[in-house]
Design brief:
The protein is an alpha/beta fold. The chain has one domain: Metal-dependent hydrolases (TIM Barrel). The protein is built from 13 helices and 10 strands. Strands 4-5-8-9-10 form a 5-stranded parallel β-sheet. The model has no long low-confidence stretch (mean pLDDT about 95).
Length: about 290
């Protein structure tokens, strides 16, 4: 069975989205039914924590109540905006993260504040997460304004590389279009904003950083993570084999009806013997168990 490294939920229906009237998050009973149908044992809850991608804020206590109600189905992360505690680069975020770590949280995220990745307030959050011994899931954005996520505004992931060097004991979980768009060398800015297609002729910054930095891991959730593999199946097999100890299955399941194509893609590669049972199991569940010490 799979373990989902990246999902979102609410304990009960919330305010519908203003632009289409749909629920922005699904509820535990619906998600568990979906998980059962897909063979997913449990999932990591990433609570909503910043205004850039949500019009509601989710308390850690709500998320922890869900985990207490379904202890065998969900794993808690906490979340903290880098601007919390008076919006300064010396806020005592470590105190907050250690508190929620002691409540059972295994990581921080999804960090989606639309601030430069090298902003001192972001460094402060990274420093606090590292001190608390928590992993951190981040979302990257290509610019300030109009997007959510930490800003990496030029190809090459140089700001991410700086963070990997500066916080070597922090486990970074890479995610989003900007991160996975750089599987291949980037020539067009739109490839960092969307879901690039075509063969990977020359490896990009994402592959280079995964190869170089032991504290960087790949969160394969959402359209971005799945597209990074399905755009070039031959390269995907090579990639999964090389980074079999650093990649984690995920869905980014949030609103009702969220697609989950990565399940079938990984099962297909296994059934066709393009990846071994060992590689499949590592990516599907064993890596996240080891990385988060579950």
């Amino acid at each position: 069975m799979f373990i989902d490294c990246h999902m979102h939920l609410v304990s009960e229906p919330t305010c519908p989205r203003p632009y289409d009237g749909k629920q922005p998050r699904d509820t535990p009973d619906h998600i568990i039914a979906l998980y059962d149908s897909l063979g997913i044992e449990k999932g990591v809850i990433l609570p909503s924590g910043s205004p850039e991608n949500s019009y509601f804020q989710q308390s850690h206590e709500e998320m922890l109540r869900v985990v207490r109600d379904y202890p065998d189905r969900f794993i808690p992360f906490c979340n903290l905006d880098p601007r919390a505690c008076f919006n300064t680069p010396d806020a005592n975020l470590e105190y907050v993260l250690k508190y929620y770590r002691d409540q059972g949280c295994k990581g921080v995220g999804e960090v989606v504040a639309n601030l430069p990745l090298d902003d001192p307030r972001v460094d402060n959050l990274f420093r606090a997460a590292e001190a608390a011994g928590l992993a951190l899931t981040f979302h990257l954005a290509p610019q300030e304004g109009g997007f959510y996520g930490l800003v990496e505004d030029r190809p090459g992931l140089k700001k991410l590389e700086r963070a990997l060097q500066k916080f070597p004991n922090l486990k970074f979980f890479g995610h989003s279009q900007v991160f996975w768009g750089e599987m291949a060398e980037v020539f067009r800015d739109e490839d960092r904003r969307n879901y690039p297609k075509g063969k990977i002729e020359k490896e990009g910054a994402t592959v280079r950083l995964l190869r170089k930095y032991p504290n960087l891991y790949g969160d394969l959730s959402a359209g971005s993570g799945c597209n990074a593999l399905t755009r070039d199946e031959d390269y995907a097999v090579k990639f999964l084999n090389e980074f079999q100890d650093k990649l984690m299955f995920g869905t980014d399941y949030c609103m009702p009806g969220t697609p989950t194509p990565l399940v079938n893609f990984l099962l297909k590669l296994r059934s066709e013997k393009k990846i071994s049972e060992t590689v499949f199991r590592k990516v599907a569940r064993e890596n996240i168990i080891r990385i988060l010490d579950l």
